[in-house]
Inverse folding.
């Protein structure tokens, strides 16, 4: 079992023990973490370029940004799709959300919606 204190830094789907063991939600959490790190790194690079008044329109650098943005976007989409599949199985097929009222299934659906929006 996963203790609440161990996962207090994770988003809400990860706080529920039956859901943390599913591959879809753990993949979503890791994918969104990678997306956040990549975006933070780009923001730091932009701030550096603005302070130093440097141009970032180097063709090699722009191609690297395009490829990496495409890769993180595909990872995020795949993670959101797999998590949506897990929620469909839990909520619709197994009726797990109705039999376990302590599970915040609506929060899981909202977190997947935000995953699709990113």
């Amino acid at each position: 079992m996963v203790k609440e204190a161990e996962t207090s830094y994770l988003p809400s789907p990860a706080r529920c023990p039956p859901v943390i063991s599913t591959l879809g939600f753990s993949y979503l959490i890791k994918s969104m973490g990678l997306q956040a790190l990549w975006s933070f790194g780009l923001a730091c690079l932009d701030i550096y370029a603005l302070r130093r008044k440097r141009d970032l329109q180097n063709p090699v650098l722009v191609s690297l940004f395009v490829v990496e943005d495409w890769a993180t976007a595909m990872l995020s989409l795949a993670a959101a799709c797999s998590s949506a599949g897990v929620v469909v199985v839990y909520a619709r097929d197994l009726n797990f959300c109705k039999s376990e009222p302590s599970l915040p299934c609506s929060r899981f659906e909202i977190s997947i919606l935000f995953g699709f929006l990113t």
